[in-house]
């Protein structure tokens, strides 16, 4: 642990104003890195070198100072970090008057060194988790033994069943914010989630996405994870953030975590693609839609071209709304009329109109399935 001018100078600025004495902070080589007397910076302090060698305090009286290079009367104390002397603090003046002040500065510097060390350790671990998470979700990275070993080093128990959440936030866009602003927002979000929800691990997968894991009791523990996802959503919305959350299936092992991540990613993509009103979706909630989404667009186009009236003004928004509501309500005319606040005869008329225009009868189960798929295709390739 090195004592730098960046660490020492702010301390000097604050304490020197109230101490009324010159204060010096020296590094492990006895060089003054910060001082209330700017002319002394970068000078070698002989008294500090003695302190470093002995790892004990050195009180210098006026009669001795003339024989020590770059030294004036005062008190010099060792700065300790993990039981090692890493620098020195010196106060110029009558040793009897400045002794206590020197100890205050010493304690302050040592506390800051410890704080900096812990911060660096946290940053280092976060970087390692981010690198591990990046390899975990990268399908081209197939060394699962390596992923398991790194997880153990990071104290991530991959035998723990976890559900993976993928959170996306609008507004964290490099085109609309500076790098520093993005980093600050990203750090704020990471801290919020880590403090309030304590995930097993959390890592950004881009400027606007965050990948996180939470323990699950078993592979069917969906309600608990939905509640947690809603709590996270509410917390971040209260921070004026516009977010979406995709939820994967509970899994264990790094291979299972990867599968859960890609489930969450697919769910998130579907929310965006279909502009769904729900902002939190578990992959299982999509049912057959997630299979339809895997069909190439050219095949969707071929199928849609067989029913051209679906993509022309003939099937205007009123008919589409009625059709979609009818299909969503399990072909129930009564429920559709209530939902749309229209007469059931109006529903019947509109359904007949759809049949006339498309050649598919919404009241027929087989035709209704085709219409449902066609409407999904319209949204998926929009």
Automatic annotation (TrEMBL):
Residues 319-373 form the PucR C-terminal helix-turn-helix domain. Residues 4-135 form the Putative sugar diacid recognition domain. InterPro entries: CdaR-like_regulators (IPR051448), CdaR_GGDEF (IPR041522), Diacid_rec (IPR008599), PucR_C-HTH_dom (IPR025736), PucR_C-HTH_sf (IPR042070). Residues 147-270 form the CdaR GGDEF-like domain. It comes from the Bacteria. Pfam families: Diacid_rec, GGDEF_2, HTH_30. Transmembrane segments: none annotated. Belongs to the CdaR family. This is CdaR family transcriptional regulator. It comes from Cohnella boryungensis.
